[in-house]
Amino acid sequence: MQDSSSPLAILKARFGYDEFLPLQSEIIENVLASRDSLVLMPTGGGKSLCYQLPALLLGGTTLVVSPLIALMKDQVDALNESGIPANFMNSSLSDLEMRRVEAAVRNGHTKLLYIAPERLALQSFRKFLHELDINLIAIDEAHCISEWGHEFRPDYRNLRQLREEFPSTPVIALTATATERVRDDIIGQLGLQDGGVFISGFNRSNLNYSVRPKSDAWERLIGLLESHKDQSTIIYCFSRQETEDLAADLTARGFEARPYHAGLDGDTRRRAQDDFIRDRVAIVVATIAFGMGIDKPDVRLVVHYSLPKSVEGYYQETGRAGRDGSPAECVLFYAFADKVKQEYFINQIVDESEQRVAREQLARMVEFAQLTTCRRRYLMHYLGEEWEQENCGGCDACLEPREEFDATEISQKILSAVIRTGERFGAGHIIQVLRGGRDKRVLEMEHDSLNVYGIARASGKSDLREIIGLLESRGLLTTEGDRYPTLAVTEAGREFLQTRSSLSLPRPLDGGARRTTPQPSTEIQFDERLFEELRVLRRRLADERDVPPFVIFGDTSLKQMAARFPQDSDEFGRISGVGAAKLEQYGADFIAVIQEYIERHGRPDIHVPEARPSRARPERRPGPTFDETRELLSRGLSVVEIAEQRGLAETTIIGHIERIAAQDDSLDMSHLVPDAATMSEIEKALEVCGDEFLRPVWEFLEEKVSYNDLRLARIHLRRGPPITPG
Ligand code: ADP
Ligand code: ZN
User: Fold this and answer.
1) Whose CA is nearest to atom 17 of ligand 1?
2) According to the 3-state scheme, what is the secondary structure of 581-597?
């Protein structure tokens, strides 16, 4: 039988997973042997577990340094949901909250303490650290220490000193940045010793990459958003103004979207982020420079509405899609004009070598955008990995392989039409002219009398559109103006006409048979209607607890539920992502929805319904629900009374109390403890059965003590005697 404190046993009991992802087990072993580790894994590779799991096995507290202040609370919430005591300290806490956390950490109960790097500069904080038993230092986003990386943080230089002050404490540094220069920098800067370097493959097999011409970006974007309705989407734009405009346009089209950039005041930004993370708004429109704070595991679509500055940046930004391992789509809209725009800014860079680097990076990015071969292979090669597969099955080049055709004549016709109409019209009008359309505007402008009128009658509209896009990406045409884009012929385009060069282009896709995203083979089959109902439940539970929905269960877990229909806690406990704490907290609620669903629909064969019901949007915005429970608790109310007053289930309230207790040692909860006789029974039972799972305890006590009382007793016993803050 498995030793109950082996990493694998803890993986199942606490995190709800059956097996380790690649390298996790080796890394955890290295950490437990008190050796330093450098972990390079792509986003979604499962880096966090590499320090979270050891934190449970080592005595004392694991210090986690992370620059993502906005995410800290969610990370800590997620751990607490899994029954793991964790806390964070950053500038968002009030003095009182800070003291509470300090007390809880001193008490030795906290397993993981998350901090922002700037805290390390404070003398008082370093003193505080020395009072603790720090067993492991985890450095998340470790590339921030390197000036070669794209997200250098001067505060990360403080880590060097931390290292010197805790010479015998092992360090684990983690990053999704793969370049060798950054890697060497991390090792050097942190002085990682005889450590293991763990590098996993950087291929993100669940991501689908495609590039589309920008000439019809708006219509295509709407199509994409329709096919990803209600799913979390990030759209990257070039400028702050663009994010605002696009978000407004989308909202006017019925797709509620929020802009997100560094120019917004803190409150607006936090609200946008919060609404996104909590599934209240599905679409965020961000500047490329500012997407970092909006990581979310279930982003299903990432759109680059403008050209990224580098392939590395593109990989990181698209990397925010599909962290949970479920399929996600990455679409880049490319126009030659975007390259010109970027060049304009590069020309403003004063430092010469910096300018050269920027130019070089842009050239690679343009190369990627213009590829007609596998995009994944290009990305992997760029990141220093070879990709041998013939067909990756997850990029436009592989999924829509296209032969080239001689496009000389049609290109000449298009360019001539643009020139003859005065370079003042968009693609739609040019196509009308080429096909001999009798639009009002064509007639008004007397474009029907030009010699280019009707010279491409035989070509389909969408084919022409696509060829125009390709001519743009080849730099023969350019789009000017954002709102009312007009086409113009570039220098290279004029030269092409004058020299009568020939040109071949990939054959346009059949206009009528445009694909929707193919589902990569990683997707499991599940009942979409049930999935939606489970999502609604998840959302309600999350609102009640004031946490993001993914903290309760990820999409991957819900999909498994909607495929396997677990109907009792044994079956439910086998779903990936269901650990002991979550089984206990949520099992009954989810099983009830599943059973009711089966009663209504039978246990259906997995089918894909035509239309999915759209996500329910309750009017009520969740209040600071924990504070309310805390407040009532401090007034001495019982669980039953609090539940009644708040209109929430008793189990929900106990869930609150478990979380509050894990974070705050100072609150008096003695009135919740069961009577002394029951307590001593429970204590005996816990000694025999351990306090990890309550079911054996409940059975040991012959089912006489309620789960609620068991949970309250456990809270009390785990906390130890109350301490006074000071
Ligand atoms: P990273 O930090 O590398 O981007 P995360 O630590 O956020 O990745 O993990 C990505 C996702 O994978 C999370 O949803 C996490 O819960 C899940 N995960 C981690 N380890 C495992 C595992 N052993 N089995 C299944 N899922 C896992
Ligand atoms: Zn491919």
Assistant:
1) 46
2) HHHHHHHHHHHHHHHHH
Mutation pick for ligand 1 pocket among 21, 41, 232 (CB with most ligand atoms within 8 Å): 21
| CA 686 – CA 700 distance, rounded (Å) | 9
Pocket lined around ligand 1, Cβ cut-off 6 Å: 17, 20-21, 24, 41, 43-49, 297, 323-324, 554, 576
Residue type (1 letter), 456 = A
Tokens of 255: 């797709």
In the reported structure, the alpha carbon of residue 211 is separated from the centroid of ligand 2 by a whole-number distance in angstroms of 12
The H-assigned helical ranges of 635-694 are 639-646, 650-663, 676-689
Mutate to test the pocket of ligand 1, among 18, 71, 323 (most ligand atoms within 8 A of CB): 323
pLDDT digit string, tens, across residues 195-244: 789 988 889 999 999 998 887 789 899 999 999 999 999 999 988 999 99
Q: Which residue has the tokens 């109390």?
A: 657
Residue 145: both structure tokens together: 């220490």
Contact 228, 270 (CB under 8 A): no
Reduced to 3 states (helix: H, G, I; strand: E, B; else coil), residue 284 is strand
Which alpha helices (H) appear in 319-400, and where do they start and end?
336-348, 352-370, 375-382, 396-399
549 CB-side CA count, 13 A: 24
* Cα distance between residue 556 and residue 325, in whole Å: 8
Phi and psi (nearest 5°) for 84?
A: -110, 120
Q: How many CB atoms lie within 10 A of CB 603?
A: 11
Residue 89 sits at φ, ψ, to 5 deg, of: -130, 120
The length of the chain, given as a count of residues: 726
From the CA of 510, how far away is ligand 2's center (Å)? 20
Neighbours of 13 (CB within 10 A): 21
User: Atom 12, ligand 1: which residue's CA is nearest?
Assistant: 46
Ligand 1 atom nearest residue 323's Cα? 10
pLDDT tens for each residue of 49-59:
999 999 999 98
CA of 221 to the centre of ligand 2 (A): 22
Compute, in degrees rounded to 10, the torsion defined by CA atoms 188, 191, 196, 198. Answer: -50
pLDDT (tens digit, 9 = 90+) per residue, 469-526?
A: 888 878 899 877 655 678 999 999 999 999 988 998 888 754 433 444 444 445 678 8
pTM: 0.68
Q: Are 528 and 609 in contact (CB under 8 A)?
A: yes
By mean pLDDT, which of 19-28, 382-391, 486-495 is the weakest? Answer: 382-391
Relative to the CA of 17, which ligand 1 atom is closest?
Answer: 24
- Asked if residue 224 lies in contact with residue 301, where contact means CB atoms within 8 angstroms, the answer is yes
Q: How far is CA 368 from the centre of its chain?
A: 23
The rounded Å distance from CA 114 to ligand 1 centre is 18
| Burial annotation 347-383 (CB, 10 A radius, 16+ → b, else e) | eeeeeeeeeeebeebbeebbebbeeeebbbbbbbebb
pLDDT tens digits along 638-664 = 888 888 888 777 777 887 788 777 767
| Cα 679 from Cα 474, distance rounded (Å) | 77
Q: Is 68 helix (H, G, I), strand (E, B) or coil?
A: coil
DSSP-derived secondary structure letter, 208: E
Examine the pLDDT at 550 and tell me if it is beyond 70. Answer: yes
Gap between the Cα atoms of 459 and 461, Å rounded: 7
8 Å CB contact between 173 and 149: no
Question: Ligand 1 center to residue 339 CA distance, Å?
Answer: 36
Residue to substitute in 8, 48, 557 for testing ligand 1 pocket (most ligand atoms within 8 angstroms of CB):
48
Answer whether 443's CB lies under 8 Å from 425's CB: no
Angle at 699 between CA 697 and CA 703, to 5 degrees: 105
pLDDT band at residue 624 using 50, 70 and 90 as cut-offs: low
The listed range with the strongest mean pLDDT (22-31, 212-221, 379-388) is 22-31
Taking a C-beta distance cutoff of 8 angstroms, is the pair 192, 38 a contact?
A: yes
The residue type found at 194 is D
Cβ(120)–Cβ(159) below 8 Å: yes
